[in-house]
Amino acid sequence: MAVTRLQHATAVIILTTAVGLFGFQAVSPALPGMRDALGISTQNIGWVMTAYAIPAFIFVPLAGLWADRFGKKVVLVPSLLLFGIAGGLIVHAPDPITLFALRFIQGIGGSAIITLNYALLGDLFAGAQRTRLAGWLGAIQNVGSSAVPIVAGALATIAWYWPFALLWTAVPIAIHAALCLDESQEQKPVSRGGAFLGHAWTHLASRPVIETLIMTGGFIFVGFGALITYLPLYMKDTFNAPELVIGLVMGARAISGVFMAGGLPWAESRFSQRSLVAVSFVGMAISSGIVPFAPNIWGLLASSIIYGAAFGIVRPMLQLKLLDLSPPDLRATLSSAGTFALRMGQAISPVVAGLYLAFGSYDGMYLWFGVIALGFAIYAYWAKCLQPGIRSGTS
After folding, report:
1. Which of 77, 167, 269, 384 has the largest count of CB atoms under 10 Å?
2. How far is 51 from 40, CA to CA, in rounded Å?
3. Calpha distance 118→325 (Å, rounded)
4. Whole-structure pTM over 0.85, yes or no?
């Protein structure tokens, strides 16, 4: 049976979603070995993550606007190539400066990846089918969040730099996208030039979109600094855990995450978006609050599983909300705004956590991040964007 263009496009969406995980998940288990091998201080190791996230401040908005104006394929293919080549070359990085520079270049390519997979999803699917595929993407993200740290942890036991070899897989995905994506399936803009920019700004500046972006940055801020970047270091410093065990604990969140993301259509049909998002933030607060009281690795495993369940709901729910708020010709633009909020949280959170650790303790950091998560749960409960029937442009 011949493979249809829709099936090729679906494969590109799925593969792009999977390889996008390598930007952070393949790096996390390597941080302790990288810190020791290259002489990076504990307070500064978070810059390995931040250097990748910083380019988003410029290139995520540009990627979305360019994709809506000129075509998603035109932007996606070179982004995948840059992501894979710069990331793969880190295997040969001899010092921290080279490492940070390649991570920055990799982040330029990575800026478009998560943006455009969901924009293509919005172009090709609608209704329950869109929710179902978004759930699959959420499950893939969670499976990848489990498998990638485990594989990366095993590779890091050989040498800290071997996990970066995984980044080369983005190159054949780029070639597949170049050969198989059909630009005629994409939604085209209804206006050009300044009119297009004004059209985009009207929707980006609406209250529902702004609220959704605040919560998108919020869930990443809560989880990324404390529960992704510094949890491996906490396990190493507190329990002297080996890299493979660190990878297993970091990957355990996929167990619950896959279950929750896969059940997203069922959950959305029975509970309000407001309830699902607010409860997810409460789960993140519990996950962070457990860490200071965990007597052993098993307690941290429970924290990871709870975090995975919360993440498996809140990420696809907020991405679907942005698609609901997007006019057909602005899906990449609004998806890029969501990615911008994600990258902002990823850039700021490790630095904030590192600054806290310069003066405080791991325990205090995790408790404070738990309090912040509870604050976002309250915000989600009252946010207008999560009321039924709200669309972009509603003030």
Report:
1. 167
2. 14
3. 13
4. no
Distance CA 357, CA 42 (A): 9
User: Which pair of tokens denotes residue 184?
Assistant: 């005629």
Residue 80 contacts residue 174 (beta carbons within 8 Å): yes
Q: Give the 3-state secondary structure of 10-24.
A: HHHHHHHHHHHHHHC
CB atoms within 10 A of CB 228: 24
Q: Report the Cα 386 to chain-centroid distance in Å.
A: 21
User: How buried is residue 293: exposed, middle or buried, by Cβ count under 10 Å (0-12/13-18/19+)?
Assistant: exposed
Using the Cα atoms of residue 296, residue 297, residue 298 and residue 303 in order, give the sign of their dihedral.
positive
* Helix (H/G/I), strand (E/B), else coil: 387: coil
The SS3 assignment for 186 reads: coil
Give dist(CA 17, CA 135) in Å, integer.
12
Q: Which DSSP symbol is given to 126?
A: -
Q: Are 146 and 253 in contact (CB under 8 A)?
A: yes
Q: Side chain identity at 288, as an amino acid letter?
A: S
* Token pair recorded at residue 390: 């709200």
Q: Which tens digits make up the pLDDT trace of 340-391?
A: 888 788 778 888 988 898 888 999 999 999 999 999 999 998 998 887 665 5
Contact between 373 and 249 under an 8 Å Cβ cutoff? The reply is no
> What pLDDT does 374 receive?
96
- Kindly report the length of the chain: 395
- Minimal CA–CA distance to 305: which of 279, 287, 280? 287
Give dist(CA 234, CA 221) in Å, integer: 18
Listed in sequence order, the residues at least 6 apart from 115 whose beta carbon sits closer than 8 Å to its beta carbon are 60, 63, 64, 67, 332, 335, 336, 338, 339
Show me where the domains of the chain are located: 5-386
CATH topology of domain 5-386: Growth Hormone; Chain: A; (1.20.1250)
If one counts every other C-beta atom within 10 angstroms of the C-beta of residue 71, the result is 15
147 burial level (CB within 10 Å; 0-12, 13-18, 19+):
middle
Closest CA to 53 of 368, 298, 315, 349: 349
Do 58 and 44 form a contact (C-beta atoms < 8 A)? no
Residue 117 DSSP symbol: H
